[in-house]
Amino acid sequence: YESLSVAELAKKLHREPSELIKKLFMLGVMATINQELDKDAIELICADYGVEVEEEIRIDITDLETHFEQEVSEEELRERPPVVTIMGHVDHGKTSLLDSIRNTKVTDGEAGGITQHIGAYQVEVDGKKITFLDTPGHAAFTTMRARGAKVTDLAIIVVAADDGVMPQTVEAINHAKAAEVPIIVAINKMDKLSANPDRVMQELTEHGLVPEDWGGDTIFVPISALKGEGIDQLLEMILLVSEVGELKASPARSAIGTVIEAQLDKGRGSVATLLVQDGTLRVGDPIVVGHAYGRVRAMVNDLGRRVKDAGPSTPVEITGLNDVPQAGDRFVVFEDEKTARSVGESRAMTAIQAQRSEKQRVTLDNLFEQM
Ligand code: GDP
Ligand code: MG
């Protein structure tokens, strides 16, 4: 249970800090606006505001967000692979491109590694890894961003050279811009006789994506996902753009990240694909994932192999959770199972509470009016 400043608590209670200071004074506590309040003081105020408020505060305090802000020293930081999302209009070749990259470049020296679908995969180019999110449509941006998760470092926007910019192309550009993620344009279907890359570049210029040759700073790569042409150049450009971004993480810390997808499996129970965004996730780690919790029982990588640990930017499928989380949910590893359980349970309660929140807010407002 963390501490809160007077100002933070006031915000959570939708009250003026001055009012809280006054209330604290009445309760015999001298406080300033930036003063940190301990658990006892928080509970004192909450009790004074009514039981419902106390519950809401306790839930807020156990928000997973707070566990994201671990202090990390500069020396711990290491380069991490970029996480890439492929977006574009329907039928412009997103799935074909993902397949083409995966078939030619899957991270594995050993032949015949059976790839399985876990919602994300990694490839290796010039000894450097790239993680691709393989979620359907714009899910990576829409569902996850709606839940406040930022998972993507770079967006590939696929535009079919024979079709040009279409409504979902523009939508994709807007998503990437809103997320402040760099964009690389892949002009696909270059093998087609009707391919007209100049037109694509012209049209995209109108949306602020200007090719380098025309004095802009957007990288355009002509490809044919079908024939596997231009894929190597595209991957090299991804690495180039990623290097500029200086993506870093600390493999030494405990893991945090986001749910890519999750479902209930008949035999294995709750199965979740997690993207480790920082730290290293290990088998046996006590973990809270959204409203679910447990211990990481088994981990499987994108090649379907059992692994014992997963570092930054690695997608893994895990089992061992008591419930099925949702895409975009955060996960945090805790030091011990007891804490994980209590945070998990508290968050599960939030879920139930959230359904009643509208009603409850009215109740709280009424309560405040009386005071
Ligand atoms: P998505 O809807 O963006 O995932 O598009 P798909 O990957 O499913 O591709 C839609 C159609 O375009 C399929 O019939 C593909 O075979 C075809 N296609 C994809 N890439 C290429 C390409 O580079 N060249 C040609 N000629 N066809 C392609
Ligand atoms: Mg598709």
UniProtKB/TrEMBL annotation:
Subcellular location per the Swiss-Prot or TrEMBL entry: Cytoplasm
Residue ranges, annotated region (G-domain): 82-230
Domain Tr-type G residue range list: 79-248
Domain of life according to the entry: Bacteria
Residues holding GTP: 88-95, 134-138, 188-191
Signal peptide residues on this chain, from the entry's feature table: none
Role noted for this protein: One of the essential components for the initiation of protein synthesis. Protects formylmethionyl-tRNA from spontaneous hydrolysis and promotes its binding to the 30S ribosomal subunits. Also involved in the hydrolysis of GTP during the formation of the 70S ribosomal complex.
UniProt family annotation: Belongs to the TRAFAC class translation factor GTPase superfamily. Classic translation factor GTPase family. IF-2 subfamily.
UniProt-recorded name of the protein: Translation initiation factor IF-2
Native organism taxonomy: Bacteria, Bacillati, Bacillota, Bacilli, Bacillales
Range of the intact protein held here: 178 to 548 of 755
